[in-house]
Amino acid sequence: MYGMIHRAIYDFLAEQNEEIEEEELQAVLQISRDEMISTHVYPDTHTLELVANAAGFMGMSSDEFMCQLGRFWLNFAERSAYRHILDFTGNDLVSFIENLS
Fold this sequence. Notes:
The radius of gyration is 15 Å and the shape is globular. The protein has helices at about 5-15, 20-30, 45-60, 60-80, 85-90, 95-100. The longest helix is centred in the last third of the chain and has 18 residues, at about 60-80. The two termini are about 25 Å apart. Helix 1 (about 5-15) packs parallel to helix 3 (about 45-60), helix 1 crosses helix 4 and helix 3 (about 45-60) crosses helix 4. By secondary structure, it is mainly alpha-helical. The chain is built from six helices and no strands.
């Protein structure tokens, strides 16, 4: 998975737990800022560990956490450097599918 996913997990937890310190958040996730490089590819097992750690911290199942992260992802991706890619995909599902080809 790309580090952008790791960054989204980190930012989601930080947003949901505003009182948490950065060092504590890094300890919960067992990840450092160096492991959140957006364009770097990390092993899927590493990402799944992040999801499990984050879900446990939030008191959710991994499935429940992923659902919540998916909702967060929409705004996260829009705020990121990848926004220009999203602009090409269209404003609705039909446009998105048509623009894939």
